[in-house]
Amino acid sequence: MQPVECGDCGNEVLVHKRSLPHTAVQWTRSTDHCPELAGPDSARVPVCTRLRASIEQAVRDGALTVDDGGEP
Amino acid sequence: MSARSTTEGGARVIEAGRPPERYARGWHCLGLAEQFKDGEPHEIEAFGTKLVVFQAAESGRLHVLNAFCPHMGGNLAHGTVKGDAVACPFHDWRWGGDGKCAGIPYAHRVPPRARTRAWRTLEENKQLFVWHDPQGAPPPEGVTIPRIEGAFSDEWSDWTWHSLRVDGANCREIVDNVVDMAHFFYVHNSFPTYFKNVFEGHVATQYMNSAPRTDMTAADTVASAGDLRSDASYYGPSYMIDHIWVEQDGATVETVLINCHYPVSPDSFVLMYGAIVKKLPGMTDEMAAAAAAETSQGLATGFEEDVAIWRNKTRIDNPLLCDQDGPVYQLRRWYEQFYVDAEDVRPEMTDRFEFEIDTERAVQVWKAEVEENLARRAAADAATAGEK
Ligand code: FES
Ligand SMILES: [Fe+2]
Q1: A18, A31, A40 ranked by CB distance to B358: nearest
Q2: B2 and A42 in contact by Cβ < 8 A?
Q3: Closest atom, ligand 1, to C-alpha of B76
């Protein structure tokens, strides 16, 4: 997994993209400081759209490589 | 994440492992609260022991105690409710909902500190829950069963409810379903088109869209007749709330399903499920009840399909996954938080993890399979018509 920083809140997550539609995101700290996820129901929010935009930007910039290898 | 797997002459060796000896920490649903409110004590075999559930006659509250009486081991579930206590069938000792001995009619006095184990209970969504923690601690803040508004609304049907005991399998098998996209096609004859998981804290969610299987008749599939959207979360180790929206005849049918279980022993559990359906405009109570019953029938078929797989499969600790499989290892890492002491829960078990499957390849292959099935059926129909 490769680190990606959220352009909005600055939090860093680990991301793996096997293809453009596939996305795995591993958080390594609490979601309390994310403007879209913070709150008691964070687990029930499917995605932070700002972080998602940063991940897509990282793919376009070539900072995040799409990698079909390795175990799922 | 399956690096510890070994091979034998190049062949993968399955590590069946052993089901855990302990039982998950968390709220476990025991069934609809109503079914325990008949004035009788009820026996529940769970967590490697037996429990008694009874309703205090005066306060009306439901209580759960160890079934076996600390006096001489009588089974309270075979006793009688007397006032707010349950009376043992063996020597009539009375036990209150708080676990204290409430009286021994033939004795001068109750021995000091005569007490049995009272289990913490919760009534929510018209269901009864019991809290299990091997360390004996109360539920941490925020760990509770969310209220389902439809369960308390006239605009929704009543719960349907079924239970099914599964022997020869640990309850991890049913939890694995959370990430198992492909089995919905092969086992349940449905057609997933979108699939995403999110795990965070004690909640694990599955977001799934699926299309109808046009190659299946109503008899072959429990899958819906229209496009379906499902949003399903486990709150803790055993209670899943599944919100489902189905597009049918120009209307959206809204359903809430419960899929829950409690362990009986390390290799058996009781699986329970039920549904409520939101009434469409013009629907009578009877029609809503019929719709819920139909949904429930579909659920029953679906779980029977799962059980048939579990009865014949092996436990596997090191599944060999492909690129279109969901995050089985991460799900199990999440699930492990309920099996370790509270102080041993590691951040990676509860840190947020999201996984969205690229379904393109699977959808393409499944479409082709559906078309092949349709063509085969059309050819068979034509042949029968020709014979006539
Ligand atoms: S064993 Fe229960 S009253 Fe004696
Ligand atoms: Fe299943």
Answers
A1: A18
A2: no
A3: 2
End-to-end CA distance of chain A: 11
User: pTM, whole model, 2 decimals?
Assistant: 0.94
Name the architecture of domain B26-132. Answer: 3-layer Sandwich (2.102)
pLDDT, averaged per 10 consecutive residues of chain B (388 residues), comes to 69 94 97 98 98 97 98 98 98 98 97 96 98 97 95 95 95 97 92 96 97 77 76 98 90 93 97 94 87 83 90 94 94 98 97 96 95 92 79
| ipTM field | 0.96
Matching CATH number, B155-370, of 3.30.565.10, 3.50.50.60, 3.90.380.10, 3.20.20.10: 3.90.380.10
| B contact test, residue of A30, A33, A52, A59 with most B CBs within 10 A | A30
Sign of the alpha-carbon dihedral angle for B347, B349, B354, B360: positive
Residue type, B37: K
